[in-house]
Automatic annotation (TrEMBL):
The UniProt record lists the keyword Kinase: no
Catalyses which reaction(s): 2 GTP = 3',3'-c-di-GMP + 2 diphosphate
Cellular component GO terms held in the UniProt record: plasma membrane
Pfam families (UniProt xref): GGDEF, PAS_9
UniProt keyword annotation of Mitochondrion present: no
The protein's required cofactors: Mg(2+)
GO biological process: cell adhesion involved in single-species biofilm formation; negative regulation of bacterial-type flagellum-dependent cell motility
Domain GGDEF: 368-495
Annotated SMART domains: GGDEF (SM00267)
Official protein name in the record: diguanylate cyclase
Length: 495
């Protein structure tokens, strides 16, 4: 199953990419708009300045300018007007010089205007002289007349040029506006495409997660195991039906149950400490790896054997754990039935063989002595015939109890078959092995007598020889038992 949860980082990347795309687009459009605004402002200021220069030139030339004063000085022989006209001609020529420096493209037209102004300027001196000589206005005008048609044409051309420049600026402005709109539409289309792609991808991930969530929900409900989700404080946040049934929970109040309540009372405090330490990091641990048998406890207090697996995880700082529990009561029962005698509840021959082989290996590895004893009930057939098989079964059960009372925790006793039992004594001495066998024999004799039907056992005990194998050991022990029976029963024979 693909882990779409890991695509969270991809979603973050897509989101960040989309965000930065929007930011970059915004700043690009702002930059483009600022650039166009600056260009338009530059051209506007430039053309305004040019228009002002041209206007000043025309003002100094035309009505109210030097022409007006020039004509008045001739008609009225007004020397003051003549001086004023001279000053205006000089001012106009300076403005023309400035205009030519800033806008050399209009140089040819301006030279024509300047040429005409030069002629007018030269006529100023002549007018003074003619006026002093007493010539009439008509006579003076006749001598100082200037053909200014080229200047008028040039000024008209300059005015027309200004108009065309305004038209050009308008055209450029429209083109810039169209370019800006194109950039805007392009970026909008790109950002929209990114947003749509991001939305589609995120919806894809969301749908996949929803699908997987549904899968997990179905698995959660259908799993033949108890599954519980537990928060950092140990309280159950959710549980499947098997868990509710297994632990006898109230499905409407599972959030009030702490996982520590589902552990045997004897280890509840230790379990709390272990749980708190376990949740410090994310990990998954099958408890079977720790060895031994683990038990769980139903809410009613009933303890049962279980296989337990625990996984911890965290999300946005919130820690939780998943606990999977398998009730192995039936498996333990089946395993016990396969390895224990149903009547006496002692290990059966299968378990005896397994344990004895391990004991032989330990004896060799640790260089310790190993003793094996066969115990047989004397005249057991007669007991069965006289008192019945039920009584005979009770005798076997009683014997199992006597054996357990008489042996050490490290010793092993099992039912070999019929009325025979096998005792394994590890790390023992000959005297110690004999003492255990005699204690068993005497206890059985005394206790059976107290119950009103005395019976005895014969025992054959043999020391394991490290040069021999298990078959030889059994054979020697069987011979020792045979000698005990041959020599009168109710005795122990050591070999």
């Amino acid at each position: 199953m693909k882990d779409y949860n890991r695509s969270k980082s991809t979603i973050y990347i897509v989101t960040i990419f989309t965000f930065f795309s929007l930011v970059i687009s915004f700043f690009y459009l702002q930059s483009t708009a600022d650039k166009q605004s600056k260009e338009w402002l530059y051209h506007s200021e430039n053309e305004i300045k040019r228009a002002k220069l041209l206007q000043d030139i025309i003002t100094n030339i035309g009505f109210g300018g030097f022409i007006h004063n020039y004509k008045n000085s001739i008609l009225r022989k007004d020397l003051f007007a003549l001086e004023k006209a001279s000053a205006q001609i000089l001012s106009a020529r300076i403005l023309i010089s400035d205009y030519r420096t800033i806008y050399p493209g209009d140089n040819e037209l301006l030279l024509k205007v300047d040429s005409v102004l030069t002629q007018y300027s030269e006529n100023i001196t002549l007018i003074r002289s003619l006026s002093k000589r007493g010539l009439s206005a008509e006579e003076i005008d006749e001598q100082v007349r200037v053909d200014d048609s080229s200047a008028l044409y040039s000024i008209a051309a300059l005015i027309t040029s200004n108009g065309s420049i305004y038209n050009k600026m308008s055209t450029v402005s429209i083109a810039r506006d169209a370019e800006f709109k194109y950039s805007l539409y392009s970026i909008f289309t790109l950002v929209l495409a990114v947003l749509v792609a991001s939305f589609i991808y995120i919806m894809f991930i969301i749908n996949k997660n929803i699908f997987q969530y549904r899968q997990m929900s179905i698995l959660f409900d259908l799993a033949p195991l108890s599954i519980l989700a537990v928060n950092e404080d140990g309280y159950i946040t959710s549980a499947n039906k098997v868990a509710i049934d297994t632990f006898e929970l109230d499905k409407d109040h599972i959030n009030d149950v702490n996982i520590d309540q589902l552990t045997p009372d004897s280890i509840s405090k230790e379990h709390k400490h272990y749980r708190e330490n376990f949740q410090q990091s994310e990990r998954t641990v099958p408890m079977s790896q720790r060895g031994g048998q683990f038990n769980a406890q139903r809410l009613s207090g009933d303890v049962f054997p279980a296989n337990i697996s625990i996984a911890t995880y965290s999300h946005d700082g919130v820690k939780e754990a998943i606990v999977v529990v398998k009730d192995i009561s039936d498996e333990v029962k089946q395993l016990r039935n396969a390895n224990f005698d149903a009547l006496t509840q002692l290990p059966n021959r299968r378990s005896i063989d397994e344990f004895l082989n391990e004991a032989i290996l330990r004896s060799k590895r640790q260089n310790t002595d190993l003793y094996v004893a066969l115990i047989d009930i004397d005249y057991f057939k007669k007991i069965n015939d006289k008192f019945g098989h039920s009584f005979g079964d009770a005798v076997l059960v009683d014997l199992a109890g006597y054996f357990k009372q008489s042996i050490r925790e490290t010793d092993f006793i099992g039912r070999w078959g019929g009325e025979e039992f096998l005792l394994v004594l590890e790390d023992a001495t000959g005297e110690g092995a004999l003492k255990v066998c005699e204690n068993i024999r005497e206890l059985i004799s005394e206790q059976s007598k107290l119950k009103g039907c005395q019976y005895t056992v014969s025992i054959g005990c043999t020391k394991y020889s490290k040069e021999a194998d298990a078959t030889v050991l059994f054979d020697n022990t069987d011979v020792a038992l045979y000698l005990s029976k041959k020599n009168g029963r109710n005795r122990t024979t050591m070999m």
